[in-house]
């Protein structure tokens, strides 16, 4: 198709206008205003909660997808391609700002902001360079340049706030992330080892070395990411990384786990094995609503210690009634629980190549009873084409809505996270985010059959 006609632009604009009408309608009915981009994010503001309203969520997704597609349609392709190739600058600048606690200093300064000379002083960094970093970010709606060289937080920059006085952060640099939601840690990990590993993508594709990932090329090591992370000199990085896993997991609603599987159908005393369960926060949420279930949380040694502490703090009654066990268990080795009713794998398998995933599945299959169910909780990747992968539509529950034309059917950048993580998984772990068809193929090789899919709402 060489030309699209002006109507495509109008249709994209109409999608945006209709979405704005919907958002305005929901906010007007609640007698509230949409949070401003200029002001810091306030999680306690009821107007924030309204953003989770399904109508507002759907409209927001359409705006994100349509605005990006509209801009990609009309902008010079040279400008679009150049900007896409420069996106690493945003990551690098965002990490630099986070590492020198700019967000917390700007929280303390308030809406009037702070001059770059004052922001740079506690970290003894170059104020001119800092100005250039913050200006690049402000140009992408992250921070606000109030007057030349004076910066303030805005809605986006403020989500990196670690919630501590900046003085405390500078005095205890190793503890900067301790006790935080893990979001600043996520940004710093993303623009640190993740970005460096992904930067080697083309090099490792074009000049492959046996067993070498982008991460290995970047750090000049043959170790796995996990072994490298556990090196004594990487203690800070390791704690930061686990904070990302636990912190972001805690932020995710546990609602979907209650809706996606009929836990109440399991008779009292049924056994749920949370394989690679981490802190076990999901099996804990299941146990809270289904106290008759016996839970086994399995993970590596260090993590099982965290898991025991997490349950002690959050559901001690289950420990006292001996309805939960904690097991150090490597899922690459034979599974010792032979009477499981459900094996649950949540956010595990995308870390692993098909070869490893099949081995994990085989160990579970060998330990399973004929009635044992396998519950895999992970993202399902869809293609960016409007045609479903053949075979997918036959699985109950697998159908998913597509974005209205002329939007990309997968909502394009509105739902880009899974595609970022897919490439990241390859470069750091040799893992992959799978399409449903890919899942079906690997399950079959591992001795399991996919019978039902559940997509969470939204
Ligand atoms: C992304 S986390 C997911 C944790 C948890 N399932 C959740 O949903 O929050 C991956 C987990 O796999 C664990 N893990 C990694 N390699 C493992 C292995 N070989 N055996 C058991 N657990 C492992 C990690 O320690 C971590 O807890």
TrEMBL record:
Residues 201-384 form the O-methyltransferase C-terminal domain. Keywords: Methyltransferase, S-adenosyl-L-methionine, Transferase. It comes from the Eukaryota. InterPro entries: COMT-like, COMT_C, COMT_dimerisation, SAM-dependent_MTases_sf, WH-like_DNA-bd_sf, WH_DNA-bd_sf. GO terms for biological process: methylation. SUPFAM superfamilies: S-adenosyl-L-methionine-dependent methyltransferases, Winged helix' DNA-binding domain. Transmembrane segments: none annotated. Residues 85-160 form the O-methyltransferase dimerisation domain. One of its GO terms (molecular function) is protein dimerization activity. PANTHER family: O-METHYLTRANSFERASE CICE, PUTATIVE (AFU_ORTHOLOGUE AFUA_4G14580)-RELATED. This is S-adenosyl-L-methionine-dependent methyltransferase. The lineage of its organism: Eukaryota, Fungi, Dikarya, Basidiomycota, Agaricomycotina.
């Amino acid at each position: 198709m060489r030309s699209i006609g002006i109507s495509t632009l109008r249709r994209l604009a109409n999608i945006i206008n209709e979405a704005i009408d919907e958002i305005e309608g929901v906010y007007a009915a609640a007698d509230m205003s949409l949070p401003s981009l200029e002001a810091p994010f306030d999680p306690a503001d009821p107007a924030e909660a309204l953003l989770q309203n399904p109508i507002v969520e759907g409209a927001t997704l359409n705006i994100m997808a349509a605005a990006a597609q509209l801009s990609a349609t009309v902008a010079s392709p040279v400008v679009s391609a150049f900007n896409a190739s420069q996106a690493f600058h945003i990551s690098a600048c965002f990490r630099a700002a986070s590492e020198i606690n700019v967000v917390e200093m700007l929280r303390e300064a308030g809406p009037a902001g702070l001059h770059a000379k004052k922001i740079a002083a506690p970290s003894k960094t170059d104020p001119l360079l800092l100005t250039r970093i913050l200006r690049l970010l402000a140009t992408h709606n992250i921070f606000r340049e109030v007057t030349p060289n004076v910066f303030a937080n805005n809605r986006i920059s403020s989500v990196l706030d670690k919630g501590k006085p900046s003085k405390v952060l500078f005095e205890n640099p190793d503890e900067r992330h301790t006790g935080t939601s893990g979001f600043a840690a996520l940004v710093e990990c993303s623009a640190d080892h993740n970005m460096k590993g992904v930067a080697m993508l083309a090099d490792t594709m074009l000049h492959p070395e046996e067993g070498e990932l982008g991460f290995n090329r970047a750090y000049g090591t043959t170790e796995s990411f996990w072994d490298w992370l556990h090196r004594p000199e990487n203690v800070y990085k390791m704690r930061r990384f686990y904070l990302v896993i636990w912190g972001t997991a805690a932020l995710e609603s546990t609602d979907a786990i209650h809706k996606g599987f009929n836990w109440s159908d399991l008779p009292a005393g049924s056994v749920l094995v949370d394989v690679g369960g981490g802190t076990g926060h999901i099996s804990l949420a299941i146990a809270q609503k289904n106290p008759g279930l016996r839970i086994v949380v399995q993970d590596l040694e260090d993590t099982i210690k965290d898991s025991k502490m997490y349950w002690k703090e959050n559901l001690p009654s289950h420990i006292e009634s001996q309805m939960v066990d904690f097991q150090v268990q490597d899922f690459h080795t034979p599974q010792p629980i032979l009477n499981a009713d459900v094996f649950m794998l949540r956010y595990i398998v995308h870390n692993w190549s098909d070869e490893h995933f099949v081995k994990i599945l085989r160990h579970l299959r060998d330990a399973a009873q004929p009635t044992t169910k396998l519950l895999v909780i992970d993202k399902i990747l869809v293609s960016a084409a409007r045609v479903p992968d053949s075979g997918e539509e036959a699985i109950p529950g697998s159908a998913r809505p597509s974005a209205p034309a002329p939007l990309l059917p997968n909502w394009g950048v509105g739902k880009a996270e899974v595609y970022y993580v897919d490439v990241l998984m390859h470069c750091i772990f040799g893992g992959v985010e799978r399409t449903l068809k890919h899942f079906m193929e690997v399950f079959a090789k591992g001795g399991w059959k996919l019978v039902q899919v559940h997509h969470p709402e939204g």
